[in-house]
Structure to design on (460 residues):
């Protein structure tokens, strides 16, 4: 497909969606994952059968590869060593296999001094229910894979394992003889990523520096569908690919010409989420068909938001400050399939300190409060009260949140209790004498586990 054809089709597919509003937040708490020296270029993420998030990182020269376990509330709950003396701190990809085991793919060599036939993509396996990793001696990919800074991997609907590295080279299986076709039409392709949607279809996206510079995306299995070229930047780590718990795939990227953060749905359309000079945009799978999206830069921090289940509206965006003395932001990874987002930012701090840092982000619910007044008798009749109704509407990026108790505390000590219904609405009604209006809204207590809350008052 030509550049003009790509751009014309994207313009036809573009639609307007409700962009996230932006809300300020306090300084962000970050935990270092690796660094300050000889940190890896990529981390790998996957949840095991217990629900814990496995965070695999490589550091050192030669490298030690470590698996750190993170609970759903962001606490670190354990760690283990996968390998020592590994020759490489490049691409990593982690898969949870159909039998519950974890398989790590790591670019490099199991030790220094190996020939080209013995380096490339190495596999380490942790059986289901075990805490011990073992080496699979099969290596594939050769010298090009050995030098890869980024790896992508996914499992297709039929159980095949797809992996990818520089040049948009895609390998199926673990045997060297399985072949390594490239999807890059010319020179050169970088930072490929793979995802599988609920139908089992596999999607590939990568940065192209060829005839058309930008991000390419296409379905590659079970059929090889159209390639779409997105007008993104070409900086390594600057785009993201995700498949929600639904059909299709999404690409988040920064359009440097128009200075917009865009979210592209494969074969569907584009949403603009923010405007400004940003370096990185990423998208991650979330609960119930939702998506987490982040964007940011080294000097402005990071913005994070989560969509509704239809991916048409977004919660108020949260601004996250980066670790102290940050001078650059290069990449980000995340995992939000269980609700909160574990976000990992690859940043440069100080004069020579580059590595990944981690923070825990909970979604934001919106509570809208509105008071309405009604007098069923003559306006100058002071013998009857004015009926007042306060409506509380609780939503998650526009989706209603039901069965949440709302406790209303009036200045005279009166307490009222209401419960949000299937529309996310709770109401409290009372009377005011002498045609008075509320000077202020009564205090409320609302607790939604797993959320922070943004309150929007619509006046008294």
């Amino acid at each position: 497909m030509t550049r003009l054809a790509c751009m014309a089709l994207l313009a036809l597919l573009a639609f307007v969606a409700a962009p996230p509003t932006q809300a300020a937040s306090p300084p962000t708490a970050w935990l270092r994952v690796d660094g300050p020296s000889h940190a890896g270029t990529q981390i790998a993420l996957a949840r095991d059968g217990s629900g814990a998030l496995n965070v695999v990182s490589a550091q050192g020269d030669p490298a030690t590869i470590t698996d750190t376990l993170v609970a759903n509330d962001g606490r670190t709950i354990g760690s283990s060593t996968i390998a020592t003396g590994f020759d490489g701190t490049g691409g990593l990809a982690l898969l949870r296999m159909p039998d519950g085991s974890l398989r790590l793919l790591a670019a490099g060599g199991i030790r220094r001094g190996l020939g080209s036939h013995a380096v490339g993509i190495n596999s380490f396996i942790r059986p289901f229910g075990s805490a011990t990793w073992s080496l699979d001696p099969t290596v594939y990919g050769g010298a090009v894979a050995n030098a890869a800074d980024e790896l992508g991997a996914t499992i297709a609907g039929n159980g095949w394992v797809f992996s990818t590295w520089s040049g948009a080279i895609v390998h199926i299986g673990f045997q060297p003889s399985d072949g390594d076709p490239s999807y890059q039409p010319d020179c050169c392709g970088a930072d490929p990523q793979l995802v599988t949607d609920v139908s089992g279809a596999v999607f590939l996206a990568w940065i192209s520096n060829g005839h058309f510079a930008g991000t390419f995306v296409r379905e590659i299995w079970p059929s090889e569908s159209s390639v779409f070229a997105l007008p993104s930047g070409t900086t390594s780590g600057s785009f993201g690919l995700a498949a929600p718990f639904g059909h299709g795939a999404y690409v988040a990227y920064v359009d440097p010409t128009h200075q917009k953060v865009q979210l592209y749905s494969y074969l569907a359309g584009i949403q603009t989420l923010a405007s400004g000079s940003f370096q990185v945009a990423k998208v991650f799978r979330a609960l119930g068909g939702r998506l987490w999206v982040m964007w940011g830069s080294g000097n402005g921090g990071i913005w994070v938001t989560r969509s509704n289940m239809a991916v048409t509206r977004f919660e108020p965006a949260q601004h996250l400050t980066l670790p102290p003395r940050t001078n650059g932001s290069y990449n980000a990874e995340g995992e939000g399939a269980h609700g909160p987002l574990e976000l990992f930012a690859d940043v440069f701090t100080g004069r020579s300190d580059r590595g990944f840092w981690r923070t825990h982000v909970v979604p934001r619910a919106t509570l809208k409060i509105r008071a309405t007044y009604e007098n069923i008798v003559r306006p100058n009749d002071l013998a009857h009260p004015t009926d007042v109704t306060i409506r509380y509407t609780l939503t998650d990026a526009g989706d209603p949140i039901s069965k949440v108790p709302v406790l209303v505390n009036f200045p005279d000590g009166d307490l009222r209790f209401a419960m949000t219904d299937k529309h996310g609405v709770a109401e409290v009604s009372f009377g005011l004498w002498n045609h008075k209006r509320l000077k202020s809204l009564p205090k409320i207590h609302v607790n939604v586990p797993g959320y922070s809350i943004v309150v929007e008052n619509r006046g008294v």
User: Anything to note?
Assistant: Confidence is low (pLDDT under 50) at residues 1-17.
